[in-house]
Amino acid sequence: MPHLRFAAPKKDRVAVVTGGARGIGRACAVRIAEEGRHVVIADVLDSGLQVAHQIEMLGQRALFIETDVSDEAAVRHMVAQTIEAFGRLDILVCCAGTLGKEAPFLEQTSEMFDRVMKINLYGVWYAHHAAIPHMLEHGWGRCVTITSAARLGATHVPPYGVSKGAVWSLIAALGNAYARQGVFVNGVEPGRALTDMVVPRFSAEHLADPPGVAVGRYADPEEVAEVVEFLASERNTYTTGSVWSVKGATG
Q1: DSSP state, residue 121
Q2: Are 55 and 49 in contact, with CB atoms under 8 Å apart?
Q3: Active-site choice (126, 160, 178, 218)
Q4: Comparing C-alpha atoms, which of 39, 9, 237 is closest to residue 138?
Q5: pLDDT of residue 204
Q6: Separation of CA 134 from chain center
Q7: Out of 66, 92, 118, 186, which could bridge 70 as a Cys pair, Cβ 3.0 to 4.6 Å?
Q8: CATH fold of 14-191+226-246, please?
């Protein structure tokens, strides 16, 4: 690690990654483990077991905890299990999310809106609320949440856009709340990455056609994970309350 005057020593840290069973969440879990962290995969998909095994092959401890992030009790139980198993919780990465139904506003029901908000917003709230006290106890913590440009308005998935706008606001609020106590809260806003949320929605021809961004291609989840890993590391000594753009273009 380069010499950074205010960097904390690199310790045997523990990370929780919600939605870590696939896509950007999986890439983040593996990348964080490559830097010597133990990782808890919190997901409803049992493919999280495969991710945990992959992390163990890297020489780190890993634990899959089946977790529905829309259930506050389940999230708190997951954090309690993490503390019981590892004795600490230093890093929180919130990748769990759902797009919801792609349909115009008038075809969206209140139930659809509630479901998206419970996963995408409440799940982030629950996770930070349960994790941050343990970080404060040790005087160091890093939280990173995946956002989306849909926060600016997405007519085909309005509940998703609203949830991501609210997450942006929460990041700004929490980023300023605990910085002097050593806990930084940030976000990462990917462009279109080739994940299980994106690929099934488009034809192979569409995905082969370069998107209208400066880099001229779609992102791999691992490219997003590189930025997440930095924000979650000791090398991040002066970034909090911000959302980093990983879109292959300006903005």
Answers
A1: I
A2: no
A3: 160
A4: 9
A5: 67
A6: 18
A7: 118
A8: Rossmann fold (3.40.50)
Place of tokens 């896509």: 23
**Phi-psi region for residue 87, left (φ > 0), alpha (ψ -120 to 50) or beta?**
left
Q: Are 29 and 40 in contact (CB under 8 A)?
A: no
Tokens of 114: 């509630």
Question: Which distant-in-sequence residues (6+ apart) come within 8 Å of 98 by Cβ?
Answer: 115, 116, 119, 120, 160
Which regions of the chain are under pLDDT 50?
Answer: none
User: Domain locations in the chain?
Assistant: 14-191+226-246
The reported pTM is 0.94
How many other CB atoms sit within 10 Å of the CB of residue 206? 9
**Residue 218 a catalytic site member:** no
Q: Hey, what are 231's tokens? A: 């924000």
What three-state secondary structure class fits 162? helix
Residues with Cβ within 8 Å of residue 109, at least 6 apart in sequence: none
pLDDT for 80: 98
Per-residue model confidence (pLDDT) at position 205: 65
Alpha carbon distance 228, 11 (integer Å): 18
> 229 phi and psi, to 5 degrees?
-60, -40
By DSSP bridging, strand 14-18 and strand 62-66 are unpaired
Which pLDDT value is given to residue 201?
A: 60
The three-state secondary structure class of 107 is helix
Alpha helices in the chain (DSSP H): 23-34, 48-57, 72-86, 110-117, 123-138, 158-177, 204-208, 221-231
